[in-house]
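Consider the subject:
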Amino acid sequence: MKNATACENTGGSGLRNDYSPLNLLHLASPAIGVKFHFFRPEGIPPLEAETELSLCEILRKAQLENRPFYFSKENKETCVGKILLGMEDMAPFAESGLIGERLGVFEEARANRHLYQFIPKLERHTVNYVSFCPSDQLSFEPDVLVISAGPETAEIVMRAVTYSTGEMYKSSCTPVMGCAWYMLYPYISGQVNFIVPALVHGPRGRELYLNDELLIGIPYRWIPTVLKNLSQMTHHLPSHQSKQQYYEEFEGILKDLAERAENP
């Protein structure tokens, strides 16, 4: 059921894209549109003041409760979310890499510290609010569309990226600060990125997703392509139904093309 308060664009321009092709995926949890704001968003309720969650848990909350809200720098955040969003600086003891060493993720603090150079972060003080909204309740175009899915459905989503473009699949991630890679990295780089949450310390420890789930972050410039391809392409390919069907179809295609190539 949709929330009574739809997520509204502060400019009032509504949607340019049709998000209904996402319904064809039959996702267990809704895709979430994420938007970064300098000014307070209108037409969407704030996250409750008493909420104390990490950034990855906040996105999961929007999925599990199927409702929109915005996170503010006034809200409590229990991990590194505000640091990644440019709202706060990292504490010196954390920046030294000592946390990762204590957790056992890294052999020594120096290894944890080395990793920080790769973590995508937004520029300081450029984001004061972050909206989270289920895709079927959107009335603004998100900066990043985040989809969680098992391998079979994730394959369809990723194929929708390459179907009309030939773009290669890419996955960039680190063993900590995973939320940066499916929320911030796509926005900053303009590239679709996917991660396996079970390989990242925080989401795994918080038991946010199933071990075989993937998280896919789709930046705004790729959203129209993915939606269009989802609406046009075959989702469940015949070759994926069984090994026998795969070989039969593949060998049939090779035979047909070889015969036609004899007299081009």
Notes: Residues 1-5, 8-13 have pLDDT under 50 and may be disordered. The chain is about 35% helix and 15% strand.
